[in-house]
Specification:
Elements lengths: L2 H4 L1 E9 L11 E11 L5 E12 L4 E7 L7 E2 L4 E10 L3 E12 L4 E12 L6
Antiparallel strand pairs: 1-2, 2-6, 3-4, 3-5, 3-7, 7-8
């Protein structure tokens, strides 16, 4: 891992949105709040994202695109950027992981890895 890659810390909080889910229709809605913390000495701009989502049936999907929630945030050293988004799954449990493509103030492009995290309806895991 390069110095730039290790300068970005990504924190994730997830929530099951019961009111908008429909288990009988195999529709489970989850929100996730991402906090991207720049621990480095250089400003970094998030250019794109890539997510891999695997549900409990082993169905694998990928989501790619520019920025996050319609933005390409620039994160100064020792600051953070936070956003909330969501996804719909066919099962009450799934795992998401991925990365952001970022560019530092000197033009160096790097990947900020997003470690796997769980999306789980309450009561599934003990």
């Amino acid at each position: 891992m390069t110095e730039l890659e290790s300068s970005i810390r990504i924190e994730v909080k997830t929530e099951y949105i019961e009111a908008q889910s429909s288990p009988e229709e195999e529709r489970y809605l989850f929100s996730y709040t991402i906090t991207i913390v720049n621990l480095g000495e250089k400003t970094a701009t998030l250019k794109s994202r890539m997510w891999c989502i695997t549900d409990a049936n082993g169905h694998h999907s990928e989501v790619q695109g520019a920025g996050v929630v319609g933005e390409t945030p620039t994160i100064a050293p020792n600051t953070a950027y936070q956003y909330t988004s969501g996804t719909v799954c066919e099962t009450p449990f799934a795992v998401m992981q991925g990365h952001y493509i970022m560019i530092s103030e000197d033009g160096t492009e790097f990947k900020a890895q997003i470690a796997p995290f769980r999306l789980a309806a309450p009561g599934l895991l003990h």
